[in-house]
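User:
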Amino acid sequence: MRKLIFTAVSLLLCSTITAQTVDELKAEQASKKDSIAAIQARVDALQGQIDAFPGWKTGAFGTIGANISNFSNWYLQGTPNNNSGNIGVTVNGFANLDKEKFFWRNSANVNLQWVKLDDKDNPEDSDSFDGTTDVFNITSLYGYKLSDKFAISALGEYRTSIINNFNDPGYLDVGVGATWTPIPDMVVVIHPLNYNFVFADNDAVYESSAGAKIVVDYTKQLGAINFKTNLSTFQSYEDSNLSNWTWINSFGYTLWKGIGVGFEFGLRGNKQETLANDLVTNTDATFDSIDNETQSYWMFGLNYAF
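Assistant: Predicted structure:
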């Protein structure tokens, strides 16, 4: 009986000591977390002061998505013997100069994707990677400051594809107007004097025109998170069918040593491109007969922040 009582008391004491030890460790851990949070707050404050200094600021982040597969005698699918793959790359970069009297902001967005489906039972099909997603945008904005938030500005923006149809079509917007910077990471461009140059082999569909250019760009880095959204619109003064808009959103989250996950999606409305596509199968298509559906793409994969 004495041994039983002694054993029970010993177990009770051990569990009590263990509970006290765990509680003490948790309390110490909480104090360490508070210390880390305080240090991070001071680091963020210093980074904010660094970012506030005028001068060149550059940065980039991108997403890489890839997969490959091989099937042999997999009869459940329509192509039982095949090699397939998908490779996609997006890059978002910027180089901004901020001075007391002026600023110069430059940015680029590139999204390229290749897809391969090689049917090993069909010697006539392609066994190479073919381009699918193909986006290339560069923008340069110069502004002379009238105040901390308003400037007289000039903008040049070029958009095209580069894998299959470089500069066919290609769009170059050049114009002047005003720029509003309500917060350091946001730029709103309003240029009522703008000309939209369109380069294409099909002159019957694509036409250049004068109009108004509006761009809204927000680029932000919060710790491990990189985010960018850009809306670019052109409203033609000559014909609404010549107007267009593009909205691209990019997100990256860094998990370890610059590597993380990334997501990008884009939307576009362009009636000239829709008509050119419909004319391939319907030679009687016109601006009035086509259904101008919104174009879109998205991509998810590994991300690397530079």
